[in-house]
């Protein structure tokens, strides 16, 4: 991970924890101050403290939301926060609200300074002990109150260390999350490159190899075997045209899926466009699914081929497409009410009968570790049922 990314993670973590500390400190301090309103004859100090805490918290949150990178400059922030703590001490004369605020200030210092958390907490602890001594002298407090008051400065030190540890943990979590996402993206990119290489090898590259063999033999055949040369020239021409068609088909297939969109919407869009082009109504019932990119691509190509066959051969009045995930599988069912055809007993006979599109669909399903079942009879339409496994943890 680059230094810039690590710094950004630290900024995001510090800003997130700082917001939580500011809100938590405001809630505790204002609650303690509100309780003090019922215990004091003069409410003015408590009301002033409430206003001071509210203003300081609102300003701090506004600045943090506007520019989270402000956490990279802790000294002015901590100085202003320390001044606010002293103002609260002056207003409340060592009331419990000050001690609550001071603990939150120590926690904020821990968020902003990390390993140096005890340095900004030390001034708060020192002032806290002085304020505690003054409160105890003035109030002639009991031993129980003494322990309660004297614990607050120590709590500030603990809050500073704890906040620093939490911030470090959040930053580490962000770093690991970013690395995990980056690894997943690299894996997806590698899988996509392998799939494209396979598609090119199985289609365009194979055709171009045949063209090259014919082209190599063409010069030597021109004078001695004119008829053979003519056939070779026709082979080169036809092969080149086939390669162009295969490349165009591959590019069209890549455009079918839009991985940044919800898969059900992509399926629905494909069916709507086909229906618009062919004039055959399509009823689509697609549940939410989020399969991997490779699964999306192969299913889109299967649906494309099924719809193409329907348009060319079925003479259907309606097509139904149903897709949903259940039991760790993603299923897609494509059916029409067209002419249908005779299904051979062995699927291998489909290739001999010229049903290469059907054979390609079966191979695509097998490539994903799934199955494709085809049922058809003359006059009874055709049903294609595809089921492919989903990786563990894939959202349905």
Q: Secondary-structure map with pairings?
A:
Layout: H1 3-36, H2 44-66, H3 74-92, H4 96-113, H5 118-139, H6 143-224, H7 226-256, H8 263-278, E1 282-286, H9 293-314, E2 319-326, E3 329-336, H10 349-352, H11 356-367, E4 371-376, E5 382-389
Parallel strand pairs: 1-2
Antiparallel strand pairs: 2-3, 3-5, 4-5
Which key terms come to mind for this protein?
alpha+beta, five-stranded mixed beta sheet, membrane, 396 residues, 5 strands, phosphorelay sensor kinase activity, Heat Shock Protein 90, single chain
Concise summary:
The protein has 396 residues and is an alpha+beta fold. 71% of the residues lie in helices and 9% in strands.
Q: What do you see in this structure?
A:
Keywords: Kinase, Membrane, Transferase, Transmembrane, Transmembrane helix, Two-component regulatory system. Pfam families: HATPase_c (PF02518), HisKA_3 (PF07730). GO terms for molecular function: phosphorelay sensor kinase activity; protein dimerization activity. The chain has eleven helices and five strands, in the order H-H-H-H-H-H-H-H-E-H-E-E-H-H-E-E. The protein is α+β, with helices and mostly antiparallel strands. It has two domains: 3-181, no CATH class; 259-396, Histidine kinase-like ATPase, C-terminal domain (Heat Shock Protein 90), CATH 3.30.565.10. The chain has a five-stranded mixed beta sheet. Helix 1 (3-36) runs antiparallel to helix 4 (96-113) and helix 6 packs antiparallel against helix 7. The longest helix is centred in the middle third of the chain and has 82 residues, at 143-224. Mean pLDDT is 74; it is low at 140-148.
